[in-house]
Amino acid sequence: MNSKPRLSTYWVTCADGLENLLQEEIHDLGVSEVERFPGRLVFKGTLEHAYKICMWSRLASRVLMPIHSVEIERTHDARDVAEELYEAAMAFDWSLIFSAQSTFAIRLHTEREIKVNTQFATLRAKDGVVDSFMDAVGRRPSIDTKAPEITLFVQAGKTEHHFCLDLSGDSLHKRGYRRYMTDAPIKENLAAAILLRTGLAKKRPDIFIDPMCGSGTFIIEALMILTDRAPGLVRRFGFNGWQGHNHELWMDIKADAAARHEHALEQPLPAFYAFDADWEAIKATKQNIIAAGFESALEHIKIEERTLADWPDFQAENKVAYLVTNPPYGERLGEKASNRALYQGLSARLQQYLPNQTVAVIASQVEQADVLALHDPQTMRLMNGKLPIYIRSGVVKAATVVKPWLETWQVQEFEPIEGAEDFANRLQKNLQALKKWAIKDQVHCLRVYDADLPDFNLAVDIYGERLHVQEYAPPKTIDPEKAKKRFNLGLAAIRAVTGLGRDAIFIKTRARQEGKTQYSKQSTASKRFIVQEGQAKILVNLTDYLDTGLFLDHRQMRLRIAKEAKGKHFLNLYSYTSTASLHAALGGAASTTSVDLSNTYLNWSKENFVLNGLTVDHADEQHQFFASDCFEWLKEGHEQYDLIFIDPPTFSNSKKFYGTFDVQRDHNSLLKRAMNRLTSGGTLYFSNNYRGFELDEEVQAMFETVEITNETIGPDFKRNQKIHRAWQIRHYGV
Hints:
Belongs to the methyltransferase superfamily. RlmKL family. With 734 residues, the chain is α/β, with parallel strands linked by helices. The chain is 31% helix and 25% strand. The chain has four domains: 8-166, VC0802-like (2-Layer Sandwich); 188-227 and 267-396, Rossmann fold (3-Layer(aba) Sandwich); 401-512, RNA methyltransferase domain (HRMD) like (Transcription Regulator spoIIAA, 2-Layer Sandwich); 542-734, 3-Layer(aba) Sandwich (Rossmann fold). The termini are far apart. Mean pLDDT is 91; it is low at 330-334 and 513-520.
C-alpha cells in the first residue's frame, strides 16, 4: 500500500490586509484548514501543498517551514535574547537541513515586546548555526546575505523562538521581471491582490487600462492572471539547497504550470493601454514586459507617453473595460492639495471616457479617493511596505452635463423687498439680459451686477452654481449702521431674485486696495470649488481671499490665448493662479511658463494643471512655474516665447520685491524686457486694471501696438468699460 504523504506545519506570510484573500487562494490550491494570524496563515499539509503555493500564490510573501522551536523559561526580567538565539541554534543539527558547502543567511523577526539589538541578535543566531555545523561535521558554511542558497527565518518571541526554513528564498512578490524601476512602485503581490479582488479574471475585459502605469506592474500582473501564468514559473526558490527537496515533485508541478500557461495563451487578450506622463516610465514598462516573457503580447499593448488630459477614445461603449492605476501620490507629487486635485481630474476623465465601467484606484489617504464618482464604492486597506494605501473600486458614474446656471434660472416670484425694489429689478433685468449669451457661449462664471445703482455698491458674480458678493466698503461719511442695513436688504434681494439659498452665496467686503493686499488672506474657511471656463476646470476659493483665483474680466483674453496657443511656447508673467497658462496648455501649447512672486498662487496654479490632467511633477516639465520677481526673471533668462501674456498689478510693494512696482511708471521697462524674449513673429498681450493708465509713447514707437480693449471685455462687463485696458504688441516688420 502507498503510505500517506507526510504532513508538516507551514507558515504563509503576507502583507497586512491580505489574509482573507490569501486564505481563499491557498484553499483553491488544496489547503482546507487554516489558522489565521495578522500577516500569517498556518496550516498542516504536504510538501506538494507548499510547492504549489510557492509556484502559484500571487498574494503570499513567504512560505516557511518551521523546523526547530525552543521554549523560553522567563526567570528574570532582563533577558539576553541574543544569547538565547545562539543557544537555541546550537541545540539543533543544521547539517540535516543543508550542507556545509551551501551559503546561508538569517532573517530575524522579533515580536513587538522583544527589545533587542536585531543586528547583534542576527549575528549570534548565525554563530549558533555555524558552531552547530562545526560540532556535527567539522566544517562551517559561508554567509551570503544577498543571494544565499538557504535562508533561515528566525522569529524571536516572548515564550518561544522559532527557526524556519524559508522555502521561498527571496520574497514571493519578487517575480523576477522588475528590472527597471520608477518612483513609489507598488509591490507585485499587492497589484495582483487588487486585480483579483476587483474581479479581473471573472470579467475578462475587452479593454484594460492603466493611465499612470509607472514601471508596468499592473499591466504585467494582469497579463499573468489572464494567461494563467504562475508567478513562480521562472524564478529560483529557497528550497533548492535544502536536503529534503523533492526535485521530481517540483519538476512535475513546474511542467503542469508551463502547460497551463501555454493552453491559456490560445485565448484572446484584451486591448491593453499603458500610459504615463514620464518617458522613463514608458521605457521601464516596455523593458519589464519583455523581461517578464511577454514580448509577444506587445502587439496587444499601446504603451504611450500621455497625460490624463491626453487620453484617446477607448471606444469602450458596448465593451467591458477595466481601469486600474496607482496615481503619483505622496513623494511622486508632493502637496496634499495637489493630490486631491489629481483625483478630481482623474474622476472627471473616468466619467467622460469610461462611464459604467469598473475601475480600481490607489490612494495614500482615503479622502483622496472620496472624490472619485463611483457607484457602490468599495475600499480595501493594504500595506505597501510600511506605507498604508487605500484601494477604491467600483463602477464609474456617468457624467452629468453641466449647464450654465443662468440656463436653469427662471424669473422668481417673491414679495417686494421694501427699500430694495430698484436693486432687485436691476439684478433681475441684468440676469435676463445676460442669459441668452451665457447659454450660447457656455459661460459658467460671469458678473451680473457691478455697483449699477449708487445705493447698492456691490459686485455680484456667478461662479458655477454659486454667487460671490463683494460689498465695496462705504465711505467714512456714511453711517455704518445705515450701510449695514442697506447691505442686508441687498442680500435679501439677491436671494429672492436668484432663488439661491444662503449656503450658495459667499460674501466679502472690498475696500480700495494697494499693492498685494488684495491677495492677503481674509479667512481660513477654504470653501474651494471647481468651475468650468472653456475647456478648463478651475479651482476657485470663494472665502479665503478677496480675489477668487479667477479674474472674470479677463475671460475673453484667456479664451483668445487658448485659440492662439497651439504649438507655441507661452509665457505668463504675474501669472497669479496661471489660468491663462492653463488655457494655453489645453489649447495645445508646446510649453507654458508661469512666473509669479507668490508660492501660494503657484501651488494653486499646479493644482489647476493637475485637475485638468496635466503633469507638473518631473524634471523635464512641459509646464514650468517660477516663484520670482518678473523683472529679475526676464533679466536672467534667454529663452524665447511665441506668445506672452502680462497682466501686472497696479501697484506692488511685496516683501519679496526690492522697491516698489507702479504699472504706469514701470511698464515701459517691463515691456521692453519682455519684448526681448518674444520671437520675431510672436505676439505679446498686455493688460492692466489701472483706470488712468496710458501706454508709454516710447513703447508705441518701438513696437507695433494695437489697443484691443473692446475685444477683451465680455458682455457682462460692458457696463464697466474701464474694468481694464489691453493691447496686442508685436515687433515691427512681422
